[in-house]
Design brief:
This protein is mainly α. It contains 19 helices and 14 strands. A two-stranded antiparallel ribbon has the order 1-5. Strands 2-3 form a two-stranded antiparallel sheet. Strand 8 and strand 9 form a beta hairpin. It is globular and about 70 Å long. It starts with 38 loop residues before the first helix and ends in a 10-residue tail after the last helix.
Length: 531
């Protein structure tokens, strides 16, 4: 099926230059026009609502979460792919309200508004059929407040010439919790083609677990004041949500690790709880491979000639590579480095044939050598293009055509069963009551077993668990969230503190600034502190 989506401007939603705060307790049915008279009609009305996150998840949101973490440095190649600093600024923690990478605010508010309109058209919040729409709206709110802090609580359509202020982050977190708990028993529990890429009970529980695990982050009165030692009253709630998913028996680790992320992934992956479907032809926007692939690899490396050039400007930080050192761990294979060999286009595995460019066996260096620090320039010759190890987790879609540019068909998981197990383990480590006979070690070892890594022995520490999350969820847009919760977002890695020594003290960067374009429309709003 082909899904279309429209990016709505926030100027459509919010009054230009107004200053009043508006009562939001208005019956959503008051704007009802006509209810759909069949399930088919209802499905048609919700067709686009679930996929508003496709655009940012396919690029900018993913880049913001990944480049701002200890995973990746976004280098440039002698001016190429510097792009006004959109990658370098994220890696150096020097982003500004004008940087394109953090400009997905309006896509999310547009998605929320589309949800509000659909809820009205389906008959209001009391109608069971609107439960999945309310759940995906809660997810959009979560992404918005996790990224930007205080955000407008757009839980209904605005009247003409009506303004709205930003609600405190804690209030938005409480709204998300209330919304998800209200719809939990109304959401489908079937996991099949009809619910793939759409909210189910288990999607809502995974989102609640994520919300509860970060509760102290989201309810802190000042993002810069948050400490991982702060009390979290919701830890047992984390365990409860995870347990319901676990005991459902609908998710497991049947599939080998890397195969779950290949272009042929989809409904059959039993680890996926909630996913964003992509298709190189009809559901476009996923281009992860473009940024990871060696700049010279459009010919030869993959065993086929790629129809379009690639970027090749994302490289792993050496410190992050060091975490992939467990003997026999299948997850080690998601990172390539050292001498490269031509890969088999049928199996995606490396052959014994060296990949030769200009008579040289291409070798990726683990260490990254810059020729200009401010722009993170590595040069644009073969040496420069070969700086840093790369990810092949979301493997380049080799069936893409020139007309489809660099779009991939790899579906992107948002919530996975592996995350549920590690969230439960972390909650127990932080003080939640253990249930179902599980311990942090036993939960971690369920993952270690399926990836063929050595078992955890003894009592793992929180740092052990954070490293496990790095190995399991690399390139899946979770690292920024994890580092903030663990109080490590300001730590030193890559070139961040070399080029921008102030970054170590800039805890205000735990949220992004409101984009300048949004502030220009909403002149009553103030920029986030520090920006």
């Amino acid at each position: 099926m082909k899904f279309r989506y429209i990016k709505l401007s926030l100027s459509f939603l919010l009054l230009f230059g107004a200053v009043s705060c508006t009562d939001l307790d208005v019956d959503v049915k008051s704007q009802y026009t006509a209810f759909p008279d069949s399930e088919i009609a209802a499905e048609a009305k919700t067709a686009d609502v679930y996929y508003m996150m496709r655009e940012p998840l396919g690029r900018d949101y993913h880049h913001a979460q990944t480049l701002s973490s200890d995973e990746v440095t976004g280098v440039s190649l002698s001016g190429d792919y510097y792009d006004n600093g959109r990658y370098a600024h994220m890696s150096l923690h020097s982003w500004t309200p004008d940087d394109a990478t953090i400009g997905y605010f309006e896509t999310l508010t547009g998605g929320i508004t589309r949800c509000n309109r659909t809820i009205i058209e389906l008959g209001g919040e009391e109608v069971a059929i609107t439960a999945p729409v309310r759940a995906v709206r809660a997810y959009y709110f979560w992404v918005l407040m996790d990224s930007y802090g205080d955000v407008p609580l757009l839980n209904r359509l605005l009247e003409e010439d009506e303004a709205i202020n930003r609600a405190p982050r804690a209030e938005v977190a409480e709204f998300i919790e209330k919304e998800l708990l209200e719809v939990l028993d109304l959401l489908p529990t079937n996991v099949d083609a009809s619910t793939y890429g759409k909210p189910t009970r288990y999607m809502a529980e995974a989102l609640l677990a994520k919300l509860y695990l970060n509760w102290a982050v989201y309810t802190s009165t000042d993002v810069a004041a948050y400490s991982p030692n702060m009390a979290n009253p919701k830890l047992n709630n984390v365990v409860a949500m995870c347990d319901d998913i676990i005991v459902s028996g609908k998710f497991d680790f049947t599939d080998p690790y890397l195969s779950k992320f290949y272009p042929e992934n989809g409904l059959h992956i039993k680890d996926f709880i909630y996913v964003m479907p992509f298709d190189r032809q009809s559901q476009q926007g996923m281009t992860y491979g473009r940024f990871w692939t060696h700049r010279s690899a459009n010919s030869g490396f993959y065993g086929v000639n790629l129809p379009s050039s690639v970027g090749g400007n994302f490289v792993y930080n050496p410190e992050f590579v060091d975490k992939f050192s467990l003997e026999g761990d299948d997850r080690n294979e998601q990172i390539i480095g050292g001498p490269l060999y031509v890969r088999d286009p049928a199996t995606y595995k490396a052959t014994s044939t060296p990949w030769i460019v200009n008579g040289v066996h291409v070798t990726l260096t683990k260490e990254i050598e810059l020729i200009d620090q401010q722009t993170l320039d590595v040069g644009n010759d073969l040496k420069g293009r070969s700086q840093g190890y790369r990810s092949i987790k979301f493997y380049m879609d080799l069936k893409t055509t020139s007309a489809q540019s660099r779009n991939q068909s790899n579906d992107v998981p948002i919530f996975r069963y592996a995350d549920v197990l590690l969230m439960k383990a972390e909650a127990i480590m932080r003080g939640a009551s253990a249930t179902q006979g599980d311990t942090p070690a036993s939960l971690m070892n369920q993952i270690r077993t399926y990836v063929h890594a050595p078992s955890v022995t003894g009592n793992p520490t929180l740092d052990d668990l954070l490293d496990e999350r790095a190995r399991e969820f690399a390139d899946e847009s979770w690292r920024r969230n994890d580092l903030i919760r663990f109080g490590k977002f300001e730590n030193d890695w890559g070139f961040k503190h070399i080029v921008n020594p102030n970054a170590k003290n800039q805890k205000f960067r735990r949220i992004f600034p409101i984009p300048t374009s949004v502030l220009n429309t909403n002149t009553n709003w103030s920029q986030n502190a520090g920006y």
